[in-house]
Design brief:
7-stranded mixed beta sheet; 10 strands; 141 residues; alpha+beta
């Protein structure tokens, strides 16, 4: 019997709903498609865990980042254990380093030092949805 799950790995499916654009990816461990995050307005939001090695980081699969950018995402908001880490997609791409996770495949990871941090997960608002973006000139917008 041939296992076609390998061909599904890394493929992101996008579904538009009243609550935003929902992103799905195939989870080989569970053998089915799972909801991985939602784009509401310009902010992509997902529940995640912090990578500990090689440094504390947050990661997106390479195909997930591309799908978020293709759908117009300008900011990424990670929710980790009731805390919020936010970054612009431009800054995420600028600071991203290749990372390979045996369970999830090729990813981009960014060290926590590049994120805006909030100790709580509050209701979404324009401040948390639009964190400060670093410009090449060294000035913040």
């Amino acid at each position: 019997m041939c296992n076609n799950n390998i061909t599904l790995a890394g493929r992101i499916e996008v579904k538009r709903t009243k609550k935003g654009v929902r992103f799905y990816a195939f989870n080989h461990t569970r053998g089915r498609r799972l909801h991985i995050g939602t784009l509401k307005g310009a902010t992509y939001e997902k529940v995640s865990v912090i990578l500990r090695q090689p440094e504390p980081s947050l990661a997106l699969s390479q195909t997930e980042l591309k799908a978020v950018q293709d759908e117009g995402g300008k900011f990424i908001r990670f929710i980790v254990d009731g805390k919020t880490y936010a970054i612009s997609t431009a800054d995420f791409a600028r600071h991203a380093e290749r990372y390979y996770n045996p369970g999830y495949g090729p990813q981009w990871r960014v060290g926590l030092r590049h994120f805006e941090f909030s100790n709580t997960t509050a209701k979404r608002n324009s401040i948390t949805d639009n964190p400060v973006t670093y410009r090449q000139s060294g000035l913040f917008q």
